[in-house]
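Might I ask for a little of your time on a matter of protein folding? What I wish to show you is a protein chain and, alongside it, a tokenised description of its three-dimensional fold. I should value your view on which stretches of the chain appear to form regular backbone elements. You will find the record immediately after this paragraph:
***
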Amino acid sequence: MEDRRTRLLAAAAITLGRLSDVLTPLGELFAAHGHRLYLVGGSVRDAVLGRLGTDLDFTTDARPEVVQELMRGWADNLWDTGGLAFGTVSASRAGQQLEITTFRSDTYDRVSRHPEVTFGDTLEGDLIRRDFTVNAMAVSIGGLGELEFVDPLNGIEALLAGVLDTPALPHDSFQDDPLRMLRAARFVSQLGFRLAPRVREAIVEMAPEIDRITAERVRTELDKLIGGEFPTEGIDIMVETGLAERVLPELPAMQLEIDEHHQHKDVYQHSLTVLRQAIDQEQGDPDLVLRWAALLHDIGKPPTKRNEPGGGVSFHHHEVVGAKMVRKRMRALKYPKQFTEDVARLVYLHLRFHGYGKGQWTDSAVRRYVTDGGELLPRLHKLVRADCTTRNKRRAALLRSTYDDLETRIERLREQEDLERVRPDLDGNSIMELLDLKPGPDVGKAWRFLKELRLDRGPMTREEAEAALLEWWPTQQS
């Protein structure tokens, strides 16, 4: 382990050396004014792991107003996002985003998660108040570009072992800030680490304390968790410790009891498999809409479960119920409206393909599938394919082949007509002129009739559309 430690620290030094055009002058600037500066937290952890991004976190003994004055004129940009009251100055330089925070030794009222901000005098006092030991390492940024690794809490040992532990007693740490419990699950997802036994035990005991955290903060952590490299492991932590029961109760509810008479898949494990298979189809950055839809696509099954005669189990209309449940939960978590609707729409549509059979859909049905999917159609393709978790290789191959056929038909229709913009063959002005109408509900009613006709028949000439409308309209008169 000592050899690996040496190699990792050497690699981190090389990584940080590439940032010498920022770190060296910044360290010299603080040293020249008699202040200490340290790279700290996730920045050090990620440098050791070889995954450092462009966000750099620092801590210093200088007070916020001094930091602000030092950075003015040196930084490319300097701004206040409300962090100054908490001792944080935000800036950018040479493409790097910098956050410099004065040593802290906060106290918490243990009712909310908001600390009483108290500035500290020592690096050690600042580090021990952090969430996990792997985030409590520092690198001294001295003058002349000198870098010194500082690790009073053995964070490097925890990192080498892949263990998340707290600097202080976990009960005290989580009582101070319950969000750290959810952050533990998030780091499991992002880093692939495991929880120290005492951390897991504390989360199990203290899970109800997460209720003190605002929905917005919970949502942020959930997005980081599901966007991680190992999201199913992080989700398992939430479910196993009871956190999910407080913030996303639909997840543990999917762990349906299986009895010997009525067999069905474990919906929870199936959903994790679908999530993994959806991720396998991603290209580029994590697609949070797709990931959430994959995880939640079957949340409507528990409330719609029915034991059928003969030992079967049914979940009639679970996609409809599931879409409503998605909207309710995501609204409670303060998700943006469009994001919520996109996830709910995918959940609602994920079963539509199973009516395709062996290709019995008419061209009209294919058009409706494309129209209903809209901009979400590429994600819907991935979700439907990910939803195939059968171990029967023959059945899995048949499902893949059938969906291939559907996509081929979609492409064939695309070559013949504009599937992405299925509109009536007459616009509102033409409808009003033809039927001698004024603007109002009747125009919308006629427009919807023509759109349905367009979906059924495909493109029509103007003469065909006018004739159909004139034939239909008298049937609507009372």
About this structure: The chain has four domains: 2-160, 163-248, 283-420, 423-476.
